[in-house]
Design a protein that fits this description.
This protein is of the alpha/beta class. Helix content is about 35%, strand content about 15%. The longest helix has 23 residues, at about 370-390.
C-alpha cells in the first residue's frame, strides 16, 4: 500500500479519525481495491511518525465498519466482497480554458484492424520475414548487458550511427560519417525536429500534392504556411515551385517512391530541385521512407547523394524495412542544422531508448538487415505481381501507379466510378482500403484507392485484390455512365 496520507496535527480532529477517514475514502474511491493488503500497523506508524496504538485503533474502526478484514498471521486486507465502487475520475475545467485556445490537431483516420478482414494498410511491412534466430541473437546481446547508469547522447548510439552511415554510403550513395547521423524515434520525429529547428510561424513550405498527411500536419502544427506543389509520373513538378522572394523556406519530398502515388523523381528533376534550392537559399527535406524496395528499375541516387551545397536533409526509417513498432529512424543534416536538431532532441525525449538501438546495431552488424532486405524484396516483388495480375480483368477501369518500388500502390479509378461506393462494396465483402482523398490538401485531382500490400500474406493479397477488382466491376456495371466514357483512362499496368 503506497498512499499519500496527510495528517494535520493542529486539527481539532484526532489523528486516529483523520487516518481512518483517509483510508476509508481511499477504499470508497477505488484507490484501494477489494483484496488489497494494507501496510502493517508497525510499518505505517513508523512512516507517519505515529504511535502504533493510533494506527491499530484506526484499523479496528475500519474492521468494525466492514471495510477491512484480517487473517491471522496474514495481515489486514480490504474486504474482498465489497460491492463494486465507482473509481475516482479526473476533474475537468469548466468551459474552455485559455490554455486550450489553440486548435487541436486533426485526428488521423485509421483503417480498422480486424483479423476477419483483409486490410490494405499503407506502411505496414511483413515482420514474419525477419529471421527469428538472428533477431533473438541481437536481443540476447542486449540482455547480457546491464543498462548504463547515465543518459546517452541525444544524437544516438555511436555504433548504430556508424553502421547507418556505412549503410547509406553503400546503398544510397550518401556521403556521411557517424557524426552526421542523428537517431530519432521514427521518421515523423525527424520531420518534427527539422520543422522546429528551421521554421517560424507563417514560414512557407512546399509539400507534394497529394502528399504524406502526417508530415503535413507536423508542419501545420509548427505554424507553417503550406504551399502544395503538384506531382506527375516523374514526381514533384519542380517547375511549379515558387521562385525568388516567394520561394518557400523548405520543400518536403519523397523522391524514391512518391507518397502516395508511387512516382520516382526523375534524375533531371532531382538536379533541377537541387539547383532551385541553392538559387533560392532553401532546404530540401528528403524522406526516403521505403527506398530499400525497388524492382524493375535501377536505383536513382538519393538527393542527399547528389547534393554539393549542403541543402538536403535526409530522413530514413526502419518502420518499413523492419517494423513500425521499433520507433526508430534517423536524420542526416548539414552540420549547423544537425547541432540544432541534437539540442531539440535532448529537449523532446533526451535520446531514443538504449536497448532498441543496441539490438538493431547488433542485427545490422551481423548482416541480418541486408539479408532481410534481399529476402523481403523477393517476397514483395511476388506480392506486387499478384496485385498487378488481379486488376488486369478490369484494366479498362483502373490504372496501377507506383509498381516500380515500395510496398504500396495507388489504384487509379475510372473518373466516372464512385470511389467511396467501391470502398463500401469491398468492405461488405471483407476487404478494407482507403481513398486517396485525405492525401490532398486541396480538392482531389485523382480518383483512386491506396493499397498497402506489405503486411498481407500472399494469399491475402491475392484474395483481397480479387475481391476489390470484383467490387470495381460491380460498381461499373451499376453505373452506366462509366462505359459511356470508356476512354477515360489509359491503362499503364506493366507486364511483370
Amino acid at each position: 500500500m503506497d498512499l499519500p496520507l496527510s495528517l494535520d496535527r493542529t486539527s481539532g480532529t484526532t489523528l486516529q479519525m483523520q487516518l481512518c477517514d483517509q483510508l476509508r475514502a481511499a477504499i470508497l474511491d477505488g484507490r484501494l481495491a477489494a483484496g488489497t493488503r494494507l501496510t502493517s500497523t508497525r510499518a505505517l506508524a513508523e512512516s507517519l511518525a505515529l504511535s502504533r496504538n493510533v494506527v491499530v485503533a484506526a484499523y479496528d474502526e475500519l474492521y468494525a465498519e466492514g471495510y477491512v478484514e484480517g487473517y491471522h498471521g496474514s495481515g489486514t486486507f480490504v474486504t474482498r466482497d465489497l460491492p463494486p465502487l465507482p473509481k475516482r475520475t479526473r476533474p475537468e475545467p469548466a468551459g474552455a480554458p485559455r490554455w486550450l485556445r489553440t486548435p487541436a490537431p486533426p485526428e488521423l483516420d485509421m483503417l480498422e484492424d480486424d483479423p476477419n478482414l483483409i486490410v490494405f494498410r499503407i506502411g505496414r511491412p511483413n515482420t514474419s520475414l525477419i529471421s527469428a534466430e538472428t533477431w533473438r541473437r541481437a536481443w540476447s546481446d542486449v540482455a547480457n548487458q546491464l543498462p548504463p547508469s547515465y543518459y546517452g547522447s541525444p544524437a544516438g548510439d555511436d555504433r548504430l550511427r556508424r553502421l547507418i552511415a556505412d549503410y547509406l554510403g553503400r546503398s544510397r550513395g550518401v556521403a556521411c560519417e557517424s557524426a552526421d547521423v542523428v537517431i530519432t524515434s521514427g521518421a515523423l520525429q525527424a520531420v518534427d525536429l527539422v520543422a522546429r529547428a528551421t521554421l517560424r510561424v507563417g514560414d512557407p513550405i512546399a509539400i507534394e500534392e497529394p502528399g504524406y498527411p502526417s508530415a503535413r500536419r507536423v508542419f501545420l502544427a509548427r505554424g507553417a504556411e503550406i504551399v502544395p506543389v503538384p506531382v506527375d509520373v516523374d514526381g514533384l513538378r519542380v517547375e511549379e515551385l515558387p521562385d525568388g522572394d516567394s520561394a518557400p523556406l523548405l520543400v518536403y519530398t519523397t523522391p524514391s517512391h512518391q507518397y502516395p502515388l508511387g512516382a520516382r523523381l526523375s534524375i533531371r528533376r532531382r538536379l533541377a530541385l537541387l539547383s532551385w534550392a541553392e538559387r533560392c537559399d532553401a532546404l530540401i527535406v528528403e524522406d526516403d521512407y521505403d527506398s530499400e524496395y525497388r524492382y524493375d528499375s535501377p536505383p536513382l541516387p538519393a538527393l542527399a547523394g547528389l547534393d554539393q551545397a549542403g541543402r538536403v536533409v535526409y530522413i530514413g526509417t526502419f518502420s518499413k524495412v523492419l517494423s513500425p513498432a521499433l520507433r526508430l529512424g534517423y536524420v542526416v543534416a548539414p552540420p549547423p542544422l544537425r547541432e540544432r536538431i541534437v539540442r531539440l532532441k535532448r529537449l523532446s525525449d533526451y535520446h531514443t531508448p538504449w536497448p532498441v538501438q543496441r539490438a538493431l546495431a547488433t542485427f545490422i552488424e551481423s548482416g541480418g538487415l541486408e539479408r532481410h532486405i534481399r529476402r523481403a524484396r523477393r517476397h514483395y516483388a511476388e506480392k506486387r505481381r499478384i496485385v498487378a495480375d488481379a486488376f488486369r480483368p478490369v484494366a479498362e477501369l483502373t490504372t496501377l501507379r507506383g509498381l516500380d518500388a515500395g510496398i504500396h500502390v495507388c489504384l487509379e479509378l475510372h473518373p466516372a466510378l464512385d470511389a467511396q461506393r467501391v470502398i463500401e462494396r469491398a468492405h461488405r465483402a471483407g476487404v478494407v482500403v482507403e481513398s486517396i482523398t485525405e492525401h490532398y490538401l486541396g480538392a482531389p485531382q485523382l480518383n483512386g484507392l491506396l493499397l498497402g500490400y506489405g503486411g498481407l500474406t500472399l494469399d491475402q493479397a491475392e484474395r483481397g485484390s480479387a475481391i476489390l477488382a470484383s467490387a470495381i466491376r460491380e460498381e461499373a456495371d451499376d453505373s452506366p455512365c462509366v462505359y459511356a466514357h470508356r476512354p477515360g483512362l489509359i491503362n499503364q499496368t506493366p507486364t511483370i
